[in-house]
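Researcher: Going back to the complex we discussed earlier. I've cleaned up the inputs and rechecked each line, so this should be the final set. Can you rerun the prediction on the complete assembly and write out the structure?
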Amino acid sequence: MKVLMYLLIPLIGIGCIRHAEVNDEVEGFDYQEIGVSEAQGFEINYSDNYITLITKSIDGNTFFRDSLVIITNPTFKFDKEVKTFSGNTESVVVQSSTHLSFIQALNTLETVAGVCGLKYVVNQEANEVFVNSQPKEICNADQMAKEVLIGLNPDIIFSYPFGTSGVETYEEVGLRSLMIAEYLETDVISRLEWIKLFGILYKKENEANSYFESVKSEYENLKLDSTIGFNFIMNLPFEDNWYMPAPNSLIVNLFKDAGLNYYYEDRAGTENILVSQEQVWLDGSKSDVWIIIAQREGDFTKQDLMNENPAYGEFKSFKTDQIYFCNTLKKDYFGQGILEPQVLLKDILFLNGTLKDHSPVYFERLK
Amino acid sequence: MRPLLLGIVLLICLGFFSMANIAFGEPELPLSEVLGILIGYESSEPMYSLIVSHRLNRTLLALFAGGALSTAGLILQVYFRNPLAGPGVLGVTSGASLGVAVVVLGGLSLGTVQGDVMIVLAGIIGAMGIIALLLLASKYIRNNISLLVLGLMFSYFTSAFVNTLFLGASEMSTRKYVMWGLGSFEGVPMSQLVIIIPIVLALTFMLLAFSKSLNGMVLGESYARSMGVSTRGLKWAVILVAGILAGLITAYCGPIGFVGVAVPQLIRLGVKSTQHVHLIPLAFIGGAFLCVLADFIVRYSGNQLPVNAVTALAGAPIVIYIIFRLNKRSV
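Model: Rerun complete. Updated structure for the full complex:
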């Protein structure tokens, strides 16, 4: 009996050794190498046999790191724990409508099999495609509908790094995901550069690269290097609190590029700044410009704004008609706006009087 | 003497924290400016006047909301002869929430949450509906604990119904309802307060007229009848007063928990009296004090804490104490 035990133990040990995975079903493909020039939240690393996409947190944010290896040489063997992908993206699930924008720009909306918050998608082009492709809702309140996800069995799930992503669960059930955090970038051009990551996944890296370069060039030509002297506050309160974006946030940097100064520039940190409503009232009475990005039904006017709170009537921007409003219920600011940062910049430059011939697309002067 | 002493102490505390809630906070305003504005002087800075009136409005709402919820809790406890009864426990607040949810999530709202007549009416109808159901059930269910469990079942049912409404609601409605559900005394203008305050005061004074009947009910319905109390009239008074008070306040402030159950008990422990001519005003002042104090704490937490969390922190230990006390008595 003991002899049998001695014979079995090494056999069990051999059985437990992890074997490298052979990628029999993967076909190799040619690709064009592209680099990342602005974005800090992702990397593209090229090797002889694969491309590694790494997504990660940016300094000051809660840490996360994710990666996906795209196999370019089918004969190369990877360890089982490496998250590999053939590069044939035919079916994806997106956790945010912002991911849809990049997919739309690459004309691959028909690959979207599932969306979180499907009924809230305001992207007209996406909704037109969805009439035929019929993607599924993958979120149930603030939870992921895992059974739906498993049923869809997408090639990739584009997920949030924080909150309800449930990435561990995806991996457990054999689904492949990649964390996308383009919104953590600190400027709109860096955020746009994430189109390159999607470009690689859809084997449209050249298209993505040239789109990015042309928008970047236009934006760089438009942006102001010096201030025009106006300072600005932002948005509307949530109950009694007013969350102002951090001074180095993407949105604040966009308006700084339009020559405006942020009223809360001296506040530290990378997270939103919590200011009491009453404090903002006082600051609003001194601030030149008030930029509001919010959802409002109907034709929202200054009077409607004052009906929400009479204190707004005492704001300097209210008295001087310097309230720039983007109604996200009507304008696809969070979708198409990501792809058109140069248009966002033009809108603000036009509204603050720096740019003449332009018809605002996203922002309007509240009247 | 004891009710008078407690009343004076509570009034002093209420006055102190009400003033503190108006005078202090971010931004810090000069005390002389705050006092000047309160007694009617024009401020050099127009925004100061708006800030002071904003703080005054929320303090007044907290004061009358607390008073109303505590009074509603007191009469529910007497009528159901259960020290654990209250608008929250019996499902009355959930009924009001259901009413608000039907209007907000069902797209029937006419404007903002505060000040929308439909929302207020729906809140009141929802609260009164649950009280009426409980009173009906109390004919068949004599056991107090069973009645409380029934109240909890109503709460579960209404919550499930609200969750179903979420499925079809728009993003804006959903956000509006979630924000309302956090509970707040913020944002109700004076034009609305001049309606809320007289209603709350009128109903509280109306209850004082029923104080003898309520004294009789403490000893049981048959005893009350033998004293000549019209139990049917009292039943309708309870539905009307508790329903309107709880529904109105819930519609304006969101569901505020524990005030209605904890404060009346504390007052009873404090005065050791069953005379409702004392208990009603004391419960009102006590509830007002707790809510003003809660709002003061909320503002000093940088508005990070919801009112509900503060009232629960204060109220839950009291409720637990009552449960232990009841258990001890029964043993």
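Model: Worth noting: The interface with chain B takes residues 120, 141, 238-241, 274-279, 281-282, 285, 295, 297, 308-311, 314, 329 of chain A (CB under 8 Å).
Researcher: Good, that matches what I expected from the previous run.
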